[in-house]
Write a structure and sequence with these properties.
5-stranded mixed beta sheet, 162 residues, 6-stranded mixed beta sheet, mainly beta
Length: 162
């Protein structure tokens, strides 16, 4: 018997990226940021850290995450589907979804203010933090799954706040 799981799609409000901060001490990159909600290796020397998932208003959830590059080469988040360019002008975190498994809803990225192509690369021995705001799930939803292409899902990430 085949069973198909359907998820409704809900739109995302905005996404942004902060500047990278090369570390003067490369060994400090080897330890995930204190309070990380989840860490996954994307490739040898490159990892994704989930920093925060927080309800900021009744209508918005704020997701913060970082790409950490411990290699000697520059890396681009597009490699793992974290960032895409759908309109050929601005980048967006179209690949990063929040899943509300209770109500079978997928919250996706839409509009973007990350920037123009080429501005997202993570320099060698540095990290770059990103954030996105999604439409909030119902108030009774206390955990969500964060899904990134080419990575295992981050299950049961607590939604902090209100």
């Amino acid at each position: 018997m085949t069973r198909i799981l359907g998820l409704s799609i809900v739109t995302l409000c905005t996404i942004s990226v902060s500047g990278y901060s090369p570390s003067s001490d490369p060994a400090s990159l080897a330890v995930p940021q204190a309070g990380s909600l989840g860490v996954q290796e994307l490739a040898s020397g490159v990892r994704l850290e989930i920093l925060e998932l927080k309800r900021v208003t009744g209508d918005l959830v704020h997701l913060s995450f970082a790409v950490v590059n411990e290699t000697a080469e520059e890396v681009n988040p597009r490699t793992w589907g974290i960032v895409a360019n759908l309109d050929h002008l601005d980048d967006c975190a179209c690949g990063v979804s929040l899943l509300d498994l209770t109500n079978l809803k997928r919250h996706r990225a839409g509009n973007s203010n990350i920037g123009r192509r080429g501005t997202l690369n993570v320099a060698p021995q540095s990290r770059k933090e990103f954030w996105a705001q999604y439409q909030a799930p119902p108030a009774e939803v206390t955990t969500m799954t964060i899904q990134v292409p080419d990575a295992r899902p981050f299950y049961d990430v607590p939604v902090e706040g209100r």
